[in-house]
Amino acid sequence: MKTQKDFQHSPENAFNESGENQVPLPVLAIVIPCYNEEEIIEDSHQRLAALLDDLIFRKEVNSGSFLLFVSDGSTDKTFSYIKANASCHVKGLRLSSNVGHQNALLAGMHYVTNKADCIVSIDADLQDDIGIIGEMLRLYRVGIRIVYGVRKMRHSDTYFKRFSAQIFYRMMRLMGVRLLYNHSDFRLVSNSVLTELRKYKEVNLFLRGIFPMMGFSSAEIYYDRLERTGGKTKYPLRKMIHLAVNGITSFSNAPLKLITWLGLVIFTISLIMSGWAILVIIRGRNIPGWASITLPIYLLGGVQLLALGILGEYISKIYLETKQRPNYHIEEMV
Ligand code: UDP
Ligand code: MG
């Protein structure tokens, strides 16, 4: 039979240190992707460290719990700060180049798999309310495997950001992708979910779509999203569009079907128009002018280019998937 000692290094079986009533305390890992966050990293680190200390003190998590900062190819002092503050509670990964928030998060999640019992992912700017992490843990303890943090309102975001986000969620819903409205990547997942996540070999991994699809027991906690405390958003319009297109094309082939339908509709309309044109000729009247000839040329040209573009998106996905290149490279660990 295994003794308590045998279990000690296995996170799923970490015990209350005092050994009293043998209540297993979960090891918590908080994963924080950071890209050029030198203005706020110190503040974020201190607030998260204080939270972790408090959770450990209140015996809600195991004393082996830790923060994992993933520097996503930062070119400023972000990683040197992490390195200078590394300890048993603060770990850091330095990726060799900027691979984007989703891949940086994935790097962190892969790293902590089997090193913790539950994992919380959160943005470095702490716009998401760290006060609900305690509640997430309570839900984890009653057996919930994924706890989503969901924003109540988006007052702190610009009007444009709110508007574009709304269009994105609507489009995803329309195309049959199960996405949680107003949930970004602030969530708790259990280690068992992360081990299952390893089975997804796709290069274009859209985490916000994958987790709801996996079907584990889940819950949502609502919170108010705060302002960024410093620095600028690292999600300019270009990256947002990329994330949206990636999300849609990784989960749905509805755009491809749309092309077929669009083609069919235009074909039917042009058949009707041809019939009408023949009728006009038979009646001996002139075909009405320029507009009716040139406009359809532009229209069809546009539609064809759009269709080719959409096809191209999917072909580029297939291209990337067949190469199976890694999503990130870890240059340094502290
Ligand atoms: N981030 C990253 N790589 C990138 C862009 C962003 O790791 O290429 C990180 C960033 O440091 C932050 C999180 O992703 O911790 C979310 O970015 P941000 O707060 O700028 O996005 P927003 O809240 O404006 O959507
Ligand atoms: Mg932010």
Q: How would you portray this structure in words?
A:
The chain has 334 residues and is of the alpha/beta class. The chain has a single domain (2-251), classed as Spore Coat Polysaccharide Biosynthesis Protein SpsA, Chain A, CATH 3.90.550.10. 47% of the residues lie in helices and 13% in strands. Helix 10 packs antiparallel against helix 11. Mean pLDDT is 86; it is low at 1-20.
Concise structural overview:
The protein is of the alpha/beta class and 334 residues long. It has eleven helices and eight strands.
* CA-based shape: elongated
Question: If classified by CATH, what would the architecture be?
Answer: Alpha-Beta Complex
| Estimated radius of gyration | 26 Å
Strand order of the largest sheet: 7-5-6-4-1-2-3-8
